[in-house]
């Protein structure tokens, strides 16, 4: 668990390779086959041959997956993984879906994170929760740099093609809620897609920059909301272990600013500060007798 961009996908693969596990996606924007750059879906190389489920499998035209539907889909996936005698690892930032799957008592008509909502403290499964935390200023700086990189590696082109090829619903549903799609909606209605920036006039450049700023601001707000939900789950009695990944992200920021690849050093810090402690947490959990 954790905020967007905090390394959940990476850690899930690291753990899966050590514990003979398969991964279930719980990010509602990554269910769909489309906008792989925009939704930051793990590439095949990043998955390192670990089986992934509910990731990039649904057609964008299928509409929105409800929490109740996710509860059923993911439960069936867990049954299949355990039948193969593998460990299921759930990874993603959609905490309302995580609650829907894992809560013993689930009310499809109630949103558990609303002011009047309630969190079910009794769980359907024997769970080991890990929260990857990154200090907010560090995470925000990293996310800003990450978005700049994503824009340079095809995010805008992907969104423009998505808008061109798909008919937008009257109200944003499913993948249409992805951060980036809505922020560029007005821009793409006004301007035809053209990546020849040198020919853009000042007004168009400003409209583009405004959309990028909105993406960053909405991403920052999303991380705040995600952390609030994790804290609410903890308050309700979910035993969520927090692991601090800030040092690794500071190294990633330093490397990006200095034009240094930095992968080896960041991986070394990541392994020491995040992976090794989490491996120990999972080991201890698996060694405990099930009540």
UniProtKB/TrEMBL annotation:
Keyword list, A-Z: ATP-binding, Cytokinin biosynthesis, Nucleotide-binding, Transferase
Q: Which residues cross the membrane?
A: none
Top-level taxon of origin = Eukaryota
Q: Name one GO biological process term.
A: tRNA modification
- Among its keywords, does the record have Glycosyltransferase? no
Read off the SUPFAM superfamilies from this record.
P-loop containing nucleoside triphosphate hydrolases
Give a GO molecular function annotation for the protein.
tRNA dimethylallyltransferase activity
Q: Record's GO cellular component, any one?
A: mitochondrion
Pfam families assigned: IPPT (PF01715)
Q: Please state which protein family the record places this protein in.
A: Belongs to the IPP transferase family.
**What name has this protein been given in UniProt?**
Adenylate isopentenyltransferase
């Amino acid at each position: 668990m954790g905020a967007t961009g905090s390394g959940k996908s990476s850690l899930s693969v690291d753990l899966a390779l050590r514990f003979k596990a398969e991964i279930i996606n719980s990010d509602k924007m990554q269910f769909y086959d489309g906008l792989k750059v925009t939704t930051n879906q793990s590439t095949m190389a990043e998955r390192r041959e670990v089986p992934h489920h509910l990731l990039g499998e649904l057609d964008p035209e299928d509409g929105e997956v409800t929490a109740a539907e996710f509860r059923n889909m993911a439960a069936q996936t867990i049954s299949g993984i355990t039948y193969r005698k593998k460990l299921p690892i759930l990874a993603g930032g959609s905490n309302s879906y995580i609650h829907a799957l894992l809560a013993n008592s689930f009310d499809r008509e109630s949103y558990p994170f609303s002011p009047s909502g309630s969190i079910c403290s009794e769980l359907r499964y024997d769970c080991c929760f890990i929260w990857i935390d990154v200090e907010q200023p560090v995470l925000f700086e990293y996310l800003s740099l990450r978005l700049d990189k994503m824009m340079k590696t095809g995010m805008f082109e992907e969104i423009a093609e998505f808008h061109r090829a798909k008919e937008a619903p009257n109200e944003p549903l499913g993948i249409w809620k992805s951060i980036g799609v809505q922020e560029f909606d007005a821009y793409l209605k006004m301007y035809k897609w053209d990546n020849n920036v040198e020919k853009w006039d000042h007004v168009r450049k400003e409209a583009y920059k405004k959309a990028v700023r909105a993406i960053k601001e909405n991403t920052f707000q999303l991380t705040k909301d995600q952390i609030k939900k994790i804290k609410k789950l903890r308050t309700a009695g979910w035993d969520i272990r927090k692991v601090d990944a800030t040092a690794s992200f500071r190294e990633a920021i330093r490397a990006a600013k200095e034009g240094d690849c930095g992968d080896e050093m960041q991986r070394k810090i990541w392994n020491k500060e995040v992976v090794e402690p989490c491996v120990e947490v999972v080991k201890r959990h698996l060694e405990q007798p099930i009540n």
